[in-house]
């Protein structure tokens, strides 16, 4: 095996991200007669087929399970059943001066199934790239277990090329100066800062029937919006209502003063989006670098939370914002990023857990439930039964919601971060509970 190190320089967008790992866990049922070691061998061999050097290690944490896979399934695959450190051997943050691994993974087994945790270092790749690697890993595992020896199709040859964005920028951007670019263009880049209080994560579920109700109500208002717009609108409209309701209870006699101040604020939604389709035709969907950016929607807080403001109205605002993102704007943002004197001078825009900002990252269209790790070893045709983000460190940082990949049933799950009092008020919000139910 060739062990020569291959050095791939990062792009300006890669340097702009915090030095953390973005981790996803897949819940995979095991066939009844399959041992943990056998399943690990297939996962390890499948991964080795992707990377020049790969491997696994036995974990000292792997003994003493008191929970079975069926119990996890019955409880809805909660995010917080295990500490993040139990499912992963790598830290959330890593010192880039120590040369952290780009891709890290840990296979965890318990009676009846496995929990596969996989992560990409955020300076090297974004969430879309992680799902590209997960799908390729699944394809290789599936190939190992099938009679068809044909190798899975690899990512496009230019996928790991971090000079690709520079090439597109040099070709498409005529005016290279930063002087005439709107400073607000900086807002396509995201950031988070630590907080003293710790949020909790919850998973909600919207059934196919309730999604159909959302669509029909939107159609009556003649809104041309996507399903993703509707789900994100439901989250954005409901979370601030629960947040301010809980704050009002805590404020007591000062609540009226707090409400008056809040009504004058502008509620802010930052939504991450995959810029691969918009940055340039030369960018393949399998591009492995960072191309996740933000678009920003704003509404007066009093308007966003008003009973007469329908989900359709909020979804239209989100759609208008998304439609305003053009290739020219993305290239302008790249011009700004390239023009900084040093990447260490990039200051991330804070969000925190207080204030009127909500962040949403939608993974709805990522087809991870179509990825099969092979049905010789795993149940459910080798496909994950659930996909969850690891939220532990994020709960100390920022209010963020994840719209999870679409279920094979057509339903949609999403994860949000809340305090206990806010979760109770959210359940009492009929405009929310009409469509979404608390799963776990």
TrEMBL record:
<dbReference type="Pfam" id="PF02458">
    <property type="entry name" value="Transferase"/>
</dbReference>
<protein>
    <recommendedName>
        <fullName>Trichothecene 3-O-acetyltransferase</fullName>
    </recommendedName>
</protein>
<dbReference type="GO" id="GO:0016747">
    <property type="term" value="F:acyltransferase activity, transferring groups other than amino-acyl groups"/>
</dbReference>
<dbReference type="InterPro" id="IPR050317">
    <property type="entry name" value="Plant_Fungal_Acyltransferase"/>
</dbReference>
<keyword id="KW-0808">Transferase</keyword>
<dbReference type="InterPro" id="IPR023213">
    <property type="entry name" value="CAT-like_dom_sf"/>
</dbReference>
